[in-house]
Model the fold of this input.
Amino acid sequence: MIINSDLHIHSSYSAATSPRMDLPTLAKGAARKGIQLLGTGDCLHPKWLTGIRELHEKDGFFYFKEEGTNFVLTVEVEDIKRVHHLLILPSIAKAEELYESFRKYSTDIDSDGRPSVRMSGEEIAEDAEDVEALIGPCHAFTPWTALYAYHNSLKDCYGDMSGYISFVELGLSADTSYADKISELHNLTFLTNSDAHSPYPIRLAREFNRFQMQDMTFEDLKAAIERRKGMKPVLNIGMPPKEGKYNESACIRCYKHYSLREAILRKWRCECRGMIKKGVRDRVNELADCDGAHPEHRPPYLHLIPLAEIIGLAVQKSASSKTVTGIWDSLLAEFGTEVNVLLDTSIAEIRGVELDDRVVEAISAFRTGKISVIPGGGGKYGVIVLNPEGSGEDAGEEEEIESKQQLSLFDF
Done:
């Protein structure tokens, strides 16, 4: 059984999120995207957990009868050093137990879906083990609220519990080619999740994982993440690192980019006097201790851009415009889900639909890597330049996937 999953999102109870981040909207949105399994996010928030209790439950997964989307209990928490951790829990009873453990160390656990706790990473991992939860660092390389922003190793963060960590979430500014330059990560599973704060197609599941599982159960998800019993991740799907907000070192005020040497010489102050924030690429290269060769268990990584963004680039309209929405709806009416259009339907089949030729050519260009990316930095996303007549600078390095024609896709 192949399962597409986005395991890190938020509810309307987290700061800076859409009020439409409710369970029915998320279930419908995931189904249209082609995602069978969503993390609930925010499962320690009492009101959000009340809503989750109203769903049907089987073997640790929660669902609406009328939708094909399953949910698994997840939460992101911030430790005393501002590092963020993702926890995946097996049951409501265990979530309640974890809530009681964290409550005495948190002033906002009842008000913010992503609570801050006055605990170290090691202490949080100990509590995770006590409730049989999976745990790993969120968006591990970004210069804010991340493992490698404040620590030089897993051991620095998790202490004696570092052996309990089973996954690392790469984040939007890193991919497998970056993370495997750090040898301590070679035995860990890499997760690619959206960290979505809104349910729109350009945010929800903009990054996701494809797992080989036997059944839709928490235990099988756990086995897939831990790569046991023949279950495992078979594909990571996410944005190219250059598109991330913090890929290169850049000023957070005017967004001027700097090399690492220039930033150090300037003492991390831009000519405009703004702060230069160290980029993920430079941070990874500081920590790199091997040539980046992938361990045998590492699945391919595909770069992906949401379908609405591809359509918008093709027809030169906003991804949220009526024109783009109409084309997106027509493609889903024909092929079922966004994932089917982006990954599983041949270009020949797409050409057979009455469709603007520019859209077909754009989808083809992304599949074959005929794009360029102007890198992001300092909190500003990178920019994709569509170049269907020639190969983009990022093309050609993805591993071939069995039974797939395309070699790469790209996401914003």
About this structure: The domain at 2-241 is CATH 3.20.20.140 (TIM Barrel).
